[in-house]
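look at this record:
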Amino acid sequence: MMPAGIDPKQMAKLMKQMGINTNEINASEVIINTEDKRIIIEDPHVVEISVQGQKSYQISGRVREEEKLFSEEDVKMVMEQANCSREEAVKALKETKGDIAEAIMKLQK
């Protein structure tokens, strides 16, 4: 949001003079993994902001959240035990709501 009466080009010039550099990043999706959920931002507008060598990111877009039912370690264990692909392991874990033993048994049938 621009202050009243300031043209975006003037604002960019002022920011550059203050040592603030911005760079738009062409992203199709942003995923933030937390301990208990995933935050997915679809069709995002991502801007990298660099101030005195410190980078930060501003992200906006359509947000949705997914509950994490299993970890990456769970996926690896299912892949190893059931001798299957990552996609098959993830699908089985989703179908079994994260139950590792059930997912392995399902894939071994």
In short: The beta strands are 20-25, 29-33, 37-51, 54-67. The chain has four helices and four strands.
